[in-house]
Write a structure and sequence with these properties.
alpha/beta, 5 helices, 7 strands, globular
C-alpha cells in the first residue's frame, strides 16, 4: 500500500481534502489542526473530502472526518460532501452512518492535486486526545458505532489519564 498523505486545495471557493494511500492515525493530529485553522476563516464555501485515491482508512481518521462535518454544520450551517469511488470504503462509510452527516457521491470527480497538509510532531498527549476525540465522535453517530468503539474509548481515556499523571 502507498504511504498515506492528505492534500488540500481551494478551487473556486471549494475546499478539497484529498486523502491518498493508506490513511493511519499519525496523520490525524495534523489534519485536526489544519481543519481548525481552515474553519476559522471559512465563509460559506463548500468542503469536499475526496477518498477516491484512499487505499485504506482507520477509525481515527474516520472520526476526524466526522468531526469536520459536525464543525462545519455547527459553525457554518453547511454540509460537506464525500467522494468515494471505492466500494469497500463506501460500505464502511454507510455502515458507520456517514451518509447522515455528508452528501456521499460515488462518481469520480476531476482530480485536484493540492498541497500536502503540514505535518506535525505532536506530543503523546495531543495524539491521544485527537484519537480519543475521533472515537468519541464516531460513537455519537449511531448505536452501532457506540457498541463498536466503547471499549476503545475506555482504554484511550485510561491511557490519557495515566499519561497525564506521569507527567505531573
Amino acid at each position: 500500500m502507498r504511504e498515506g498523505r492528505v492534500l488540500y486545495a481551494d478551487r473556486d471557493h471549494v475546499h478539497v481534502l484529498r486523502y491518498l494511500g493508506d490513511i493511519r492515525y499519525p496523520l490525524a493530529p495534523a489534519v485536526s489542526c489544519f481543519i481548525d485553522t481552515l474553519l476559522e476563516h471559512f465563509q460559506g464555501e463548500r468542503l469536499v473530502v475526496d477518498l477516491s485515491d484512499t487505499d485504506a482508512i482507520d477509525s481515527t481518521n474516520l472520526g476526524e472526518i466526522a468531526r469536520i462535518a459536525c464543525l462545519l454544520s455547527e459553525r457554518h450551517h453547511a454540509r460537506a460532501a464525500i467522494v468515494s469511488t471505492r466500494e469497500d470504503i463506501s460500505q464502511v462509510l454507510h455502515s458507520m452512518a456517514f451518509d447522515e452527516l455528508f452528501d456521499i457521491r460515488h462518481e469520480s470527480v476531476e482530480s485536484v492535486e493540492g498541497e500536502p497538509i503540514p505535518t506535525l510532531s505532536p506530543s503523546k498527549d495531543l495524539s491521544l486526545q485527537v484519537i480519543l476525540s475521533a472515537h468519541r465522535r464516531l460513537m455519537e453517530m449511531s448505536d452501532h458505532n457506540r457498541n463498536q468503539f466503547s471499549e476503545v474509548v475506555k482504554q484511550l481515556e485510561q491511557e490519557l489519564s495515566s499519561s497525564r499523571s506521569k507527567s505531573s
